Amino acid sequence: MIPTRRIKLALFAVLLALCLFTLSVYFFNGNEWLRAYKASLSSNDDGRIVNGFYVEEDSSWGSTGTNEDTTVVSITHSEPGMTTYYQPVYRPDDTQEPKSHEIVILLASNGKTSDKKGGQNVFLECLKNRIMYAKAHNYAFEYVNVSTYDVPPVWAKMPAILATMDKYPNAKWVWCLDQDALLMNRGLSLQDNILNPKVLLKSLLTNTPFSNDIASLGTPDKYRMSDLDNIGLILSKDLEGLNAGSFFVRATPLMRMFLDMWTEPSFRTNEVVKNEQELLEYFAKHHPELTSHVGLVSPKKINSFDAAEEYIRYTEGDLVIHFAGCWVENRCEELWNRYYDMSPKDDEVHL
Questions:
Q1: Quick one: which of 216, 280, 284, 307 has the fewest CB in 10 Å?
Q2: Can you give the pTM of this predicted structure?
């Protein structure tokens, strides 16, 4: 009899080979996929699609007029557990790149917190904080209750992102931000902070290792504007390595394939890695061709911490503060309350 573990490893190897083969098809035919993707944005259905976005008249969002908000960006079907807390409007005079209604903020969680005290209040305060920011900048804000997925919460972000891409088929970016984070700068847009191509070009870190274990495997020594279309995942590092508490995913067929690989259950069941962050480092080590699609930025851009180290320490003006690991010193409630009191509020947001 062949040992069961050997059979599992053999099946795992075959599955991984198939995934890599499929991914290589994407790499070698990337331009065709990109052209097909762009072509899908130019379709028209009796005026129901404007610049690639389904829109519908809704007087509740503003009266008809040249500079008024008159259309709500429509969304497709929702999977169970998905809730739209803010739906953006289509603004024809929006000249930003990307346009505001092309960005989705995603909260993928089960609503629970590391701190047993007042967990529900923290969840509601998190929702209010995200709605406040989405409303200020006309971004979509989507909540996915990951308890509806048959996977551990730490692995549920990827299917939640895929479900969000399905629901917003013409969005360009999805920002996945953990529940234990607060938006602190209402006036700083995602375009001005990171997503505008000119800003992103200046923000991408060069000569920076993806893994603390392999210093030679890192970002290139220079980025050009032509390289940016190839960047599909933007995230930062903390003291331990890559941190998936705050990251941006470009909504493209290639990144959908990458997300499928990132959540492949064989990696979990065969104990290749412990969590999604370790799997990303695993890909970087063993399949470095994937790293050309990953961009690293300073934690202070998208993922500041209450920490002693200056390069990751939150200071006034930073966009977000993340309380990752607060449970180690039993400081979650203290940190959340302190920074929530400091965070901007919108009195019109009610839950």
A1: 216
A2: 0.80
